Amino acid sequence: MTASLLLSRVSRATSSITLRRVAGFNSLNGQIHGGSISGKLFRERSLATLAQGASHFDEMVSVNQRKYYLLGGKGGVGKTSCAASLAVEFASHGHPTIVVSTDPAHSLSDSFSQDLSGGVLKPVQGVDSTLLALEITPETMKEEIKSQSGGKSVKNMMDSMGLGMFAGELGDLNLEDMLNAASPGIDEIAAISKVLQFMESPEYSRFTRIVFDTAPTGHTLRLLSLPDFYDSSISKITKLKKKVTAAASAFKSMFGKKEIQQQEPSNELDQLKERMEKVRNVFRDVNTTEFVIVTIPTVMAINESSRLHASLRKENVPVHRLIVNQLLPQSESECKFCSMRRKEQTRVLGLIQNDTELSGLKLIQSPLLNAEIRGVSALKFMGDHVWR
Fold first, then answer.
1. Residue 298's CB: how many other CB atoms inside 10 A?
2. Does the pLDDT at position 289 exceed 90?
3. Where do the DSSP E strands lie in the chain?
4. Most CB within 10 Å of its CB: which of 4, 24, 127, 253?
5. What 3-state class would DSSP assign to 161?
6. Nearest-CA neighbor of 73 among 339, 384, 360, 297?
7. Is 128 designated active site?
8. Selection from 100, 102, 97, 101 nearest residue 127 by Cα
């Protein structure tokens, strides 16, 4: 069978389905984007798919203490829609909520159909309760660092940390030059900075749910491992400073000069180390944090999700749920293409049950919807059926 003939047959089959259901499709699209959504039409087509995978949302919403939810996975699996819909659900259930995108390729603005750029928290329009959203931008983070440094050079900053003896090799390198250089991990550093703000600033104390729409897998793992990296680096710097101070003191005493009094590590390093420990503990605290893996029903996506869960286990990050997004709903049509895709997706769901990393997670099945999920009304519609 030629490719053109196969495409022609698929086109005729899907066109036939569209002709029979176009009124229903247009109705659903109008209900979503018109702001008055009825779940009846959706349930008639898709509830059979959803019935097998409830998210146990009552567990997620019942606790009054602050909870952090990080949603992550392979690129293109629908992390942003899932994170945004979860944030809307939390807010709708009375939790003051913040949703944050740490993905450099932001789509949170598109998901809410509202400009959330600029690196500052903005109120989400169309939600009756408190919901703020933020797209973290490295450029804004760099400007914040510059303003906080007061134009210091690297040498001046090292002097203030008590490490001036090493600054000579760096000359008068300007902090701005470092920030403008390609800096791997700046996105993760910006995200960590925001986590610290949410944890420490009194103005954010009333928010009981903080949802992170994370970057694709590699970025997310760097984000979660960053506190450990900083903690280790700070410890090495502290030990090195003690050794250098002791050596300098012994050297001067050999020449009869007054012995240098050994100083304790600077308060700045101590404070930074303490703050990194706070972030690390939050990421690993089963009572405050949960990482939700989002995937789609393909073998490649499931394999990456399995590797992601293995990495999260090594980082001791709590994971309880797995969302399988974009599942084709059951249909009575004779579309062979749809039937083959559903059969393949069913096979992939079986792989999850046999995967040692994923089989123990709560499986949430999210259908491929017949309208674009964009705007608060659409996100509420999605959330009411996925987060239940």
1. 15
2. yes
3. 67-72, 97-101, 122-123, 131-135, 209-213, 289-295, 319-327, 362-367
4. 127
5. coil
6. 297
7. no
8. 97
DSSP states of 70-102 as a string? EEE-STTS-HHHHHHHHHHHHHHTT--EEEEE-
Q: What's the average model confidence in pLDDT over 18-31?
A: 41
Tokens coding 86 = 């979860």
Q: Sheet of 97-101: strands edge to edge?
A: 122-123, 131-135, 97-101, 209-213, 67-72, 289-295, 319-327, 362-367
**Per-residue three-class SS string for 97-148:** EEEEECCCCCCHHHHHCCCCCCCCCEECCCCCCCEEEEECCHHHHHHHHHHH
SS3 325: strand
CA–CA gap between residue 135 and residue 121 (Å, rounded): 8
What does the pLDDT look like over 122-169, one tens digit per residue? 999 999 899 999 998 766 665 665 565 555 554 555 555 444 544 444
Question: Which candidate, 131, 133, 130, 136, places its Cα nearest to that of 115?
Answer: 133
In angstroms and rounded to an integer, the radius of gyration of the C-alpha atoms of the chain is 26
- Model pLDDT for residues 162-208, shown as the tens digit of each residue: 445 444 444 444 545 544 544 445 667 778 778 888 988 999 999 99
- Residue with the two structure tokens 């797995």: 322
pLDDT at res. 118? 84
Classified as helix, coil or strand, 211 is: strand
What is the C-alpha to C-alpha distance for residues 283 and 214, in angstroms, rounded to an integer?
13
Q: What pLDDT score does 183 carry?
A: 47
**Chain centre to alpha carbon of residue 99:** 9
Closest CA to 209 of 94, 114, 128, 308: 94
Q: Which of 58, 103, 213, 285 is flagged as catalytic?
A: 103
CB 338 within 8 Å of CB 331: yes
As given in the structure block, the two tokens for residue 67 are: 């909870």
Beta bridge partners of 68: 210, 289
What is the rounded distance in angstroms from the CA atom of residue 288 to the CA atom of residue 65?
Answer: 8
DSSP H or E segment with residue 201 = none
